[in-house]
Amino acid sequence: AAAAAAAVGSRGRAAHLGTPDLFVHVGDTVSIPDRLWEWATRVFIPLATESLGQRTPILLAPGNHDQIAPNSLVYIHPPSRTSHWKAYSVGSIRIVVIYCDEDIPAQQRWLQEELNSEAFRSARFKVVLAHMHPFVEYWIPWAWVDLEQRKWGDFVRTKFLPLFEEAKVDLVMGGHSHVYERGMKNGITHLIAGGGGGELEKATDRVENYQVFDKIEIKFHYLWFTVKGCSMNIVAYDFSDTPFDQFEVKSRSSSCSSQTTESK
Questions:
Q1: What pTM was estimated for this model as a whole?
Q2: Minimal CA–CA distance to 127: which of 193, 208, 78, 66?
Q3: Which of 78, 194, 230, 256 would give a disulfide with 175, using CB separation of 3.0 to 4.6 Å?
Q4: Which residues pair with 193 in a beta bridge?
């Protein structure tokens, strides 16, 4: 199965790769959610132009921009959902979507239940989507310090990340910071894919260094995921459709570990 993941800005991408099984967006689809024209010109028209919106399920991890107004709930919440956090099974993948704007005890209780659920434990791949990634490193320096925006979503790193590590999550993916960063820590592949169309961060605006990321690119981009057996292949493309990063995430599930052991 193949799934495209991208942050769509003023244009859609990935048509040259074919039709994906799932389209994933890591948040901040628009700047001001009460402006309905933004939803049209920055989200739905690009998706329709690339024939994604008509044929492909779309999974959104809401960001701080696209969920701060009541009108935005029409676009980012399925009718049956009453909370911002959710989990889905897509083929062999369990996708857990985290709400990063506020530290709500109910979410942590739900997360602990989800990580212990049969659906999560039996999944071959375990993926977490969090708009504010635990390791945001590029931001506006004065806002990071003077406005204390460094505290935004810090509970995802201090409270949730240890749970992800214990549960052997394979991939934690976020946006928020308009860069591309990839690395690994404690068995988890960490990925920031925030270059879908908004103004890019400046190379001089590095506000943290968690020593997690080996690959850092400040350019517009989108990603293409291909899942086969116990392997998840991810290719990052710039907006000229040229690949600039490619890597593999191997499942840490018990079923894949036993296959590896038997093959030795």
A1: 0.88
A2: 193
A3: 194
A4: 180
